[in-house]
Design brief:
The structure holds two protein chains of two kinds.
Chain A lengths: L1 E11 L2 E12 L3 E5 L6 H9 L6 E6 L2 E2 L5 H4 L4 E3 L12 H7 L9 H6 L2 H20 L15 H14 L4 E5 L7 H16 L3 E5 L3 H7 L2 E6 L2 E6 L1 H5 L2 H8 L6
Parallel strand pairs in A: 3-8, 3-9, 6-7, 7-8
Antiparallel strand pairs in A: 1-2, 1-4, 4-5, 9-10
Helix pairs in contact in A: 3-5, 3-6, 6-7
Chain B lengths: L6 H16 L5 H25 L7 H19 L3 H23 L4 H20 L11 E2 L11 H23 L2 H11 L1 H6 L4 H27 L1 E2 L6 H14 L6 H15 L4 H18 L5 H9 L21
Antiparallel strand pairs in B: 1-2
Helix pairs in contact in B: 1-6, 2-6, 2-9, 2-10, 2-11, 3-4, 3-5, 3-9, 4-9, 10-11
The chains are: A alpha/beta, B mainly alpha.
Chain lengths: ~250, ~325
């Protein structure tokens, strides 16, 4: 059971963002996707989640070709994602933000929703307690009744991860989850990711913070100019001369 | 949260009973209250799709006109009684809205307003220039009264206001349901909504069609209450005024459009001068409201209850937050 992308190519006008990329993510493993700015990390990520349609190649999830599936359908196949800039309703509470994540697995009868039927109210109360459980299970210490707009970036990223996990995904795709957050939140985040993988979820992390992913991931994929420059064990990838040159520059001055 | 769902509907029920009692001595109050009720019945669904979903529609009166005309034409051409035309009056505008909504609802808010405005104008032109089929500019007269309540003002008042109360209840129940959260998510950020598996286009079309169906019901009520419907009765002017009511009353509250409708009708009665002059006053007023109380008049009342908890602090952009900012 895995996500397998074959020979993906994406072009934006004259720019080639991805150029024949093969990619695999198994359930239960943590894979890091690294590379300099503009290497195509987010494009690859968006191809898998369906925000961007590839010009060539295919994305297969658990044996089913989903290359042409709409974005909103993929979460129903067990692919959850977060965003580089957290997207939440700033006026809503933390609890509501997490509850939104249950959307793919909760029944939403039209008339029941309008007339506040008993089954809808029960499902609502159910979801509320499950969201509370999820928040405390993940070690998120933020008050669930707080407005999402009042949270720090780190807390917001954790809330997004909780929302992504609420749907009970098989694959969790995180877009720069550790960017701009303090070490304490990074620690909580790392624990959440390890726990998810232990529960059999395949986790893909797009990240600039190389020490963070190197520590967490069993496998790293380094993208440079839309192609895979190196992949494999973190130590091997980080010492790969081809990748080091692209990432740090020839002078190695950084 | 779920306990307060019926609160606004309860408040409105008390208001309705108050009107019934006070109106005993002032018979003109009933007619005014019926007008307020009809506007509110158009405004509350608009408040839901605009306030929660960001769908800025200037076609609501057109949907009401379609409903009213559907009933009137079925009566004048096929002699169907209002009992039999009620369903078509609701379903025809709902279907029409569903079909036209797909391309329109994809647009950003302002373009959406313009597209629905064009739609409203189109409907008006079709009804006024279809000659013998729709009665042209003269419209259709001699329609039978609303079934059961007949010509009784109290009866019509009870019917219209009961419908408003049900709408307000449904609005509140919907907003606190998973589907309501989905609608708010669509408004906040469509990409966010899609990432949690919400079929944005289908959901918006469905809700838009429901508001059009309710508008069609208002058109049916209107046509059989007055016994007449013409191209000028439920026109684009009314659509614009409905938006005025929703915004002035408070587009984020179920009772906002009701308050806005009452304000609009009473202000129209008391202001001196012609309807054109009123337009000027209302125009100035909407600017004032948007500048001073952008959430609408009802936010003044609501904020007194919640003043301490949610101080009107500006919402920081998430990207500007530093990790240290934990409050």
């Amino acid at each position: 059971m895995k996500i397998a992308a074959r020979d993906l190519a994406v072009r934006f006008g004259g720019i080639t963002a991805l150029d024949g990329v093969d990619f695999e993510l198994n359930r239960g493993e943590i894979v890091g996707l690294i590379g300099p700015n503009g290497a195509g990390k987010t494009t690859l990520f968006n191809c898998i989640t369906g925000v961007v349609a590839p010009n060539a190649g295919s994305v297969v999830v658990d044996g089913a070709d989903i290359s042409n599936h709409r974005f909103d359908l993929r979460v129903h196949l067990g692919i959850s994602r977060t965003f580089q800039t957290p997207r939440v309703n700033a006026h809503g509470t933390v609890l509501e933000a997490v509850m939104l994540g249950f959307n793919p697995i909760v029944k939403k009868p039209l008339f029941g929703s309008f007339f506040g039927s008993r089954s809808v109210r029960k499902a609502e109360a159910d979801m509320e307690s499950r969201a509370h459980n999820l928040i405390s299970e993940l070690g998120i210490t933020t008050d669930p009744t707080k407005r999402a707009g009042d949270l720090s970036l780190g807390a917001l990223r954790l809330v997004e991860v909780a929302r992504a996990l609420a749907a009970g995904p098989h694959y969790l795709l995180l877009d720069e989850p550790a960017a701009g957050i303090d070490e304490n939140d990074q620690g909580v985040l790392a624990n959440v990711i390890r726990k998810a993988a232990k529960d059999g979820i395949g986790v893909l992390i797009v990240e600039h913070n190389v020490p963070f992913v190197a520590d967490l991931c069993g496998r790293l994929i380094a993208l440079v100019q839309g192609r895979i420059a190196a992949s494999g064990e973190p130590s091997g990838v980080l010492s790969d001369p081809h990748f080091v040159r692209a990432y740090l520059g020839d002078s190695n001055a950084g | 949260m779920s306990k307060s769902v019926g609160r606004n509907a309860g408040v409105l029920t008390i208001v309705m009973l108050g009107i019934l009692i006070v109106g005993q001595g002032h018979s003109s109050l009933y007619a005014t209250a019926i007008t307020v009720g009809l506007y509110a019945l158009l405004g509350v669904p608009l408040g839901l799709i605009y306030g929660c979903g960001g769908v800025l529609s200037l076609a609501q009166a057109a949907f009401a006109a379609i409903g009213g005309y559907a009933s009137a034409l079925l009566f004048s051409h096929y002699h169907l009684p209002p009992e039999a035309t009620l369903l078509p009056a609701i379903i025809v505008p709902a279907l029409f809205a569903y079909v036209v909504s797909r391309p329109i609802l994809r647009l950003p808010e302002m373009s959406m307003a313009l597209a629905t405005l064009a739609l409203g104008l189109l409907v008006e032109v079709v009804f006024s220039s279809s000659g013998g089929l729709t009665g042209g500019y003269e419209g259709v007269t001699g329609l039978p009264p609303i079934p059961i309540v007949g010509n009784s003002r109290v009866g019509v008042l009870l019917l219209v206001w009961s419908a408003v109360i049900i709408c307000v209840y449904c609005y509140d129940a919907f907003r606190t349901s998973a589907r309501g959260r989905a609608l708010i998510a669509i408004h906040v950020d469509r990409l966010l909504a899609e990432s949690v598996g919400i079929p944005v286009a289908r959901e918006l079309s469905l809700l838009f069609a429901i508001t059009a169906g309710i508008s069609g019901f208002v058109g049916w009520l209107y046509a059989h209450y007055l016994g007449y419907i013409g191209p000028g009765s439920l026109n684009v002017h009314l659509s614009a005024n409905l938006l005025f009511m929703v915004v002035v009353g408070g587009r984020k509250y179920s009772l906002g459009p009701v308050l806005g409708a009452a304000f609009f009708v009473f202000a129209g009665d008391w202001l001196p001068g012609s309807a054109q002059a009123h337009g000027m006053v209302f125009g100035a007023l909407i600017v004032l409201v948007l500048l001073l109380v952008p959430e609408g008049l009802l936010s003044l009342v609501q904020s007194r209850f919640r003043w301490k908890r949610v101080a009107s602090r500006p919402i920081p952009q998430s990207s500007q937050l530093s990790p240290e900012q934990s409050l």
